[in-house]
């Protein structure tokens, strides 16, 4: 109950400022097709070898307004001065978004060093841990939560409508090869079994906070709900998701190779049987089925006296201790246990890759244009351009020139407004005679250079090996 009260008085925005995560790599790429926003090392396809991923770690975070310096301090700790807080909130607009997506992936099959059975239709088995968070929030909601009402005496903060969601999932994914074609596209379907370790959803509607000039009276109104499963290592919800990957290569007489890919991943549902819900003025199905309210009643204003709330009171919770009994009686919160199904945070990807195969030694190796969308609060459709350049370095081990690839590009959308990206891909190690490929990519370089001004940042790393 106490947690629910804090949420409705102060919007509950703190979870969205603890976002730091990984993006879905969307692929198991093959030679000659570095076709992802994340790293898929480009290799010659003349011998038909395929890059098989071993493990990957990917991080993507961003906001259209909150700078990276503030996000990092909430993620890792650090003091934010009142001057900096005022500067941050002045950057916000009427409607703001923020989010993060993170993924840890480990390939269980095929196993490196053990030859893959080419007669099996099973391509890979992958274990994934996925964290996805997103938020849409208003400027006044930010002010209410982080600064209290002391700076806004005699004013009304219109926090209005805010939405936050957070997922932590464990997945086992099976990817298959098929011999079928669809308008010339190869078809790779996938199926995955998911455990939702934790799920949280916060939604507010028409939140307003009016303080008188002396700070001894507050009028609060608004509706909303807070739903959470808590965390369980064994899972709080279970689901089944499907995926489909379509690829096509077009080789022209001039040597220009065009590779096209369409992919949908993680589309499906999670089923929950025990979700704790705290609501204010929310109308729910009486049989306990459903995790979103059918609507809201008209919210009655809540009047509190002697509540001059400052940032220190908010941080240590003394305001709540002083007013707890009065708040509990007036908020009229309702607690319940509910069950239902929720659509999983699925991903849609489309990419077109260009490369001249007749000029393998060209510095510009290939160019990629791609589109990506994640079905999570705060994520906008993302358009990406990436150019890959080829170089060589002298390997001290065998005294030979070894290739490497350098990627530069930019994208708009996602959790951020835009990002400048760069990556490096090396093919210099071996395991039992098989070439190992290692790649690293930095996303949102402008935010690392000037974290007080720019909003998003991320990193991805991948290790794979070549099979023939």
Keywords:
468 residues; mainly beta
Question: How would you describe what is shown here?
Answer:
By secondary structure, the protein is mainly beta. The protein has one domain (2-467). Helix content is 13%, strand content 54%. The chain contains seven helices and 20 strands. It has helices at 2-10, 68-76, 82-90, 139-147, 311-316, 318-331, 445-449; strands at 50-63, 96-109, 122-137, 156-176, 181-182, 185-211, 217-228, 237-251, 256-280, 282-283, 295-296, 302-305, 334-343, 347-356, 364-374, 380-395, 400-414, 418-431, 434-443, 457-467. The strands form two sheets. The chain has an 18-stranded antiparallel β-sheet that branches. A hairpin with a 2-residue loop joins strand 5 and strand 6 (185-211). The longest helix is centred in the C-terminal third of the chain and has 14 residues, at 318-331. It is globular, with a radius of gyration of 25 Å. The model is unreliable at 1-48 (pLDDT under 50).
